[in-house]
Write a structure and sequence with these properties.
It is built from 18 helices and no strands. With about 325 residues, the protein is an all-alpha fold. It has one domain. The radius of gyration is 19 Å and the shape is globular.
Length: about 325
């Protein structure tokens, strides 16, 4: 146990340190992504063979620490933020998430012939909240580490591209700054990427973008409940009813996440305590990402090929074009 936790802690410390470099910080590259990449590098060196006792600690990081981090992530939200922009923002987020998930799953499994796990994780990362959605979904469906790593890679690539492209689009498409902020929040992958794109446009865009994005993050809870039930049903069907007696593993961490949102909405913690809890959540998620990367083998990633990136590119185009149309019609 200790060996694996120390390994994840070292990779996490390195991730947070490297994330402070201007070249990475200015491009919205989070410590989670860096820790994942460092974990993949470390896991594909002779070091992996020497750390034979790391397994329990790695498993603890990708299960308990991951879920605890998602719970603490709820302290970044309040109910007041969610209701500030009105009901149509909720409708917009639900429409975007539903469209991306259904389209992504159909294209991935039917058109590109991808496996269901990689397709679902890639679609969830694009639709909801990037790496956090990938990790939460992976924890629910218990997918292969390589599938989750590939999904995170697509989120990083196209989320970063969106972060750079959206400020260039702003003067070209004739949206008001406030509406463009809603568009950013409804369609860009990661919270950090949303903040970077919003800041590049203006203060009003930044405020609306963050609120709309956080509403999308909250949609992770009903998504996990619905997908968990559908996944269980599909697993039973694929085995001719052999698993029909199996029960859904209730994602308690999703309810914990919601509880933290409600708590944060009505109880004001001391600033230092609140910051420490949010930081603890970020550290837990980063350690989970490091463990996920360490368990990923490059040979397995190569077997997945280019199809996940093709799927993510398709969803990126859908988010940019369809998100613009939906934002204009529903909120504009």
């Amino acid at each position: 146990m200790v060996q694996g936790l120390v390994l994840c802690a070292l990779l996490t410390a390195a991730g947070f340190s490297l994330a402070q470099l201007p070249a990475l910080a200015n491009n919205g590259i989070s410590p989670l992504v860096i820790a994942l990449l460092l974990g993949i590098v470390a896991g594909n060196t002779p070091l992996a063979d020497k750390l034979r006792d790391a397994g329990p600690g790695l498993k603890f990081s990708t299960s308990r620490l991951l879920r605890g981090g998602i719970v603490l992530f709820g302290l970044s939200l309040t109910m007041q933020q969610i209701t500030a922009l009105g009901p149509m923002v909720l409708v917009l987020d639900v429409l975007v998430i539903t469209t991306v998930l259904i389209t992504g799953y159909f294209i991935g499994t039917r058109v590109l012939g991808m496996d269901r796990e990689t397709t679902l994780l890639t679609s969830a990362g694009s639709a909801i909240c990037g790496a956090a959605a990938v990790l939460a979904t992976e924890s629910l469906i218990r997918s292969r580490p390589a599938a989750a790593s590939m999904a995170v890679a697509t989120v990083v690539l196209f989320g970063t591209l969106a972060m750079l492209v959206y400020p260039l689009l702003y003067p070209l498409i004739g949206m008001q700054e406030s509406l463009f902020g809603i568009y950013i929040g409804a369609t860009i992958h990661e919270v950090a990427q949303v903040i970077a794109a919003g800041e590049a446009v203006g203060p009003e865009a930044l405020t609306n973008a963050v609120i709309v994005k956080l509403v999308r993050v909250m949609m992770l809870v009903p998504f996990l409940l619905i997908v968990g039930r559908l996944w269980l049903r599909s697993q039973a069907a694929s085995t001719d009813g052999a698993n029909v007696g199996a029960s859904l593993a209730v994602p308690w961490f999703a309810f914990g996440f919601m509880a933290m949102v409600v708590f944060n909405s009505f109880i004001e913690l001391p600033a230092s305590l609140h910051h420490s809890l949010v930081l603890a959540g970020q550290l837990a998620l980063t350690m989970a990402m490091a463990a996920l990367g360490f368990n990923t083998r490059l040979s397995t990633l190569r077997d997945l090929g280019l199809r996940p990136f093709i799927l993510a590119l398709t969803l990126f185009v859908l988010l940019v074009s369809g998100g613009w149309l939906a934002s204009t019609l529903l909120v504009g």
